[in-house]
Amino acid sequence: MTSLITFEYSQNIWKHFHSKNFVEKDLETSVAGRSFMITGANSGIGKATAMAIAKKAGTIHMVCRNKDKAEEARAEIVKESGNKEIYVHILDLTETKKVWEFAESFKKKYKTLNVLINNAGCMMTKREENDEGLEKSFASNSLAVYILIKSLIPLLEKSPEPRVITVSSGGMLVQKLRTGNLQSQRGRYDGTMVYAQNKRQQVVMTEQFAKAHPNIHFSVMHPGWVDTPTIANAMPDFHSSMKERLRTPEQGADTVVWLAVSEAAVKNPSGRFFQDRQMVSAHLPLAWTHSSQLEDQKFMSVMEDLTFSCRLI
């Protein structure tokens, strides 16, 4: 853990918030009549994203694991934004089959979905499996994201100006895509590195989905190191020592909101990686983290097979 934090710091990945370079008019827009699904929307970056978009009159679908926390967050968003078009959906993203069932049910119930925001993150301190025998971090951070995107693509494609945004992490910069041992069954389990690998997988998924579905604008982003419950719970020592230097959830959410609502965002090519409203490389200079086209395709094939398998259970 310490080595990863040190590496990211040395590479200036979690630098100070660059709002001075932002074009504020990019976010001066109403999104009334547009619908946004946000996973992990009851706290941290997800909640800040939901609040910001709700204030712009967007319809929000909060996908959350904890009903009480979700309803509490919804009430706060409604009160502060004055927007009552905020809906709560209870789903544990580690439960793979239920993720697919939720997406299929959502397609039948709702006529449009303009933006899907994959924000929820799971960082495990020890290896655990879900009911399908899948490692929970992979199930939540990678397979759930794949299933939601794949299942909701038909709904997105028939909606105006569809977008998919995935919240990744700068930790993925120290990871090359793995096509084997996706369940972390071999070797010592390091929850931080598993999380970083999942985040690299999200980048590859974004790139591949963008190629396959040019009518949807796909993007993946790094929010910086943000003071969120995930960081506080999974890395308490880091959180307590660096708390004063972490970004606020609102700062972390800024680029998510920009990618979700601004016209400027979609002028950039689809499938790219962003930080602080700028398109940046998904690899460090001279990095060994590039995967081949064959490796990317093999990974996507594995994800498709796992998705199919979960539907048969």
Automatic annotation (TrEMBL):
InterPro entries: NAD(P)-bd_dom_sf, SDR_fam, SDR_member_12
CDD domains: DHRS-12_like_SDR_c-like
Protein name, as recorded: Dehydrogenase/reductase 12-like a
Lineage: Eukaryota, Metazoa, Chordata, Craniata, Vertebrata
